[in-house]
């Protein structure tokens, strides 16, 4: 009798469990969220672009004292001076980037620029009054004359074009924005021209105030255009606005060192040149970034 009761209780429990399960709501199944496809920003690959901007050049010039037609001790040499050589520029660039990890990008870049940097200046130097017995008084002027020598120099500067060959190292602030430093070799075509003139006012004795004669000696015009080599360094920011296209803003400092022009002539001068450049550009990367799936 006891065994029969246990069996009946088990069957009743089974039916109760089945009935409870039937009363539960069925499980709701949902689809996976739709896949969102965003462009990735892979910086690795070749690129090319164009740029334009402005440059502030500085030419530091030292003109050698004139050696003729009279003693240099009787003249006043031109003081060394700085000449502004400013102008617009435009050109193009090519390069290659390696994105070494999520934060760092290394690269090489070369550019060539047309430059509108030109400037000219006229210098004047007046020497002391000296007597006719001094060495260098021309044309046998008598002992009762005195003279004042005036020197002028018309100088012109022109940076016609330049190119740079640089390395780049940058940090990704976010996948689209690169802050970078850059530096390397600079090459430029620099033209320097000089025209000197010497005039001597001859007076009738030391007390004379009105010249009785003016002697003029025009120097031979001289011009030299040569390729100068220097260095450059700077920094910039570049931002991608699509996988292939980016815009940049860049600053460069260039230094072309010093060169002596027209050595041993009345036009001899030492000219050093450096430049500061701000330019904006746009690049096209030929290798597009990968597609990244996000959920």
Walk me through the topology.
Elements: H1 2-23, E1 36-39, E2 45-63, E3 81-99, E4 104-131, E5 146-174, E6 177-203, E7 213-218, E8 222-240, E9 245-261, E10 269-285, E11 291-294
Antiparallel strand pairs: 1-11, 2-3, 2-10, 3-4, 4-5, 5-6, 6-7, 6-8, 8-9, 9-10
Characterization of the model:
The chain has 295 residues and is mainly beta. It has one domain (36-294): Porin (Beta Barrel). The chain contains one helix and eleven strands. Strands 2-3-4-5-6-8-9-10 form an eight-stranded antiparallel beta barrel. The radius of gyration is 40 Å and the shape is rod-shaped. Residues 4-12, 14-22 and 291-295 have low confidence and may be disordered.
């Amino acid at each position: 009798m006891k065994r029969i009761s246990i069996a009946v209780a088990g069957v009743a429990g089974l039916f109760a469990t089945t009935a409870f399960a039937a009363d539960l709501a069925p499980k709701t199944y949902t689809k996976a969220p739709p896949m969102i496809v965003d462009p990735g920003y892979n910086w690795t690959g070749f690129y090319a672009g164009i740029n334009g901007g402005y440059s502030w050049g500085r030419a530091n010039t030292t003109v050698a004292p004139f050696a003729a037609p009279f003693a240099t001790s009787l003249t006043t040499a031109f003081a060394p001076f700085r000449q502004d050589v400013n102008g617009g520029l435009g050109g193009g660039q090519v390069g290659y980037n390696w994105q070494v990890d999520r934060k760092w990008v290394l690269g090489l870049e070369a550019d060539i620029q047309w430059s509108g940097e030109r400037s000219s200046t006229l210098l004047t130097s007046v020497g002391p009054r000296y007597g006719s017995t001094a060495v260098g008084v021309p044309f046998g002027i008598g002992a009762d004359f005195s003279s004042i020598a005036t020197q002028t120099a018309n100088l012109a500067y022109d940076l016609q074009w330049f190119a740079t060959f640089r390395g780049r190292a940058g940090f990704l602030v976010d996948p689209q924005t690169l802050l970078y430093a850059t530096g390397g070799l600079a090459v430029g075509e620099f033209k320097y021209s000089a025209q000197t003139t010497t005039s001597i006012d001859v007076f009738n004795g030391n007390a004379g105030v009105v010249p009785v004669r003016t002697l003029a000696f025009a120097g031979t015009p001289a011009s030299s255009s040569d390729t100068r080599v220097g260095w450059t360094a700077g920094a910039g920011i570049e931002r991608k606005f699509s996988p292939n296209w980016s815009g940049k803003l860049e600053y460069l400092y260039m230094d072309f060192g010093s060169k002596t022009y027209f050595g041993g002539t009345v036009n001899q001068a030492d000219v050093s040149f450096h430049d500061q450049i701000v330019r904006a550009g746009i690049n096209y990367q030929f290798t597009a970034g990968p597609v990244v799936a996000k959920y």
